[in-house]
């Protein structure tokens, strides 16, 4: 056989035998001569900045401050209509202002409106945002309220005093006058002060600026006043038209709106003294 042909056959044989080995070697390297799996693992590890993965969040410090807020500034005493419940949230943070979860928060109430069966749910635990939420439910006493929140086992606390409990609507009118007797039959503009006190059904003074309207069957009376701390007053004045007789009464009526209807009260004032006009007959000659 010629030498050239023999060399061709030998080269073909070697190529057939070595081709699988060369392919396996190429498939087992990652471009730079490294195994593919090793290269992928190295790339993934590099994403963590050399730390082997995502860095965990820094540790949160201990509670350093607490803040309070409410979803309302006013509620009503219970069972008079309107809302008597407020949602209160306490937020606990560390010295860097980061939310502190898992803190036990104790809520307490004080002030005038903390009586009469008022309640606040306590304790509550802060969530991942550092918030502990609770509910205040008003009782039967109106007035100012102070809500205090304290992180259990610490001196960290805060107070909230911007929630007011309003009284219910007027339940009754109590009316008086002073003096009860005026020398007003013959003299104009003699005054008596007419006063009203108006509580709700629990005895709380009705809320400020409640309007009260007045009328009289004789003389004149101021038409309206508005309450402050559940009370207000107007002036009654002697004038025409006066009641008949030497000693006669004028009746004053006060009216305001109750929970479901108008409520009213009356009080009398005695007008005494000489009549406004008189005639004398048969005078003896002078």
Summarize the structure in words.
By secondary structure, the chain is mainly beta. Among the domains are: 65-166, Immunoglobulin-like (Sandwich); 174-271, Immunoglobulins (Immunoglobulin-like), CATH 2.60.40. It contains two helices and 18 strands. It has helices spanning 3-27, 36-46; strands at 65-70, 74-76, 85-93, 104-110, 119-120, 124-125, 131-137, 143-151, 157-166, 174-178, 181-182, 191-197, 211-216, 220-221, 224-226, 231-237, 248-257, 262-271. The strands form four sheets. A five-stranded mixed β-sheet has the order 2-9-8-4-6, with no helix packed on it. Strands 11-18-17-13-15 form a five-stranded mixed β-sheet, with no helix packed on it. A hairpin with a 4-residue loop joins strand 17 (248-257) and strand 18. It is elongated. Residues 24-57 and 276-280 have low confidence and may be disordered.
Secondary structure elements and their pairing?
Blueprint: H1 3-27, H2 36-46, E1 65-70, E2 74-76, E3 85-93, E4 104-110, E5 119-120, E6 124-125, E7 131-137, E8 143-151, E9 157-166, E10 174-178, E11 181-182, E12 191-197, E13 211-216, E14 220-221, E15 224-226, E16 231-237, E17 248-257, E18 262-271
Parallel strand pairs: 2-9, 11-18
Antiparallel strand pairs: 1-3, 3-7, 4-6, 4-8, 5-7, 8-9, 10-12, 12-16, 13-15, 13-17, 14-16, 17-18
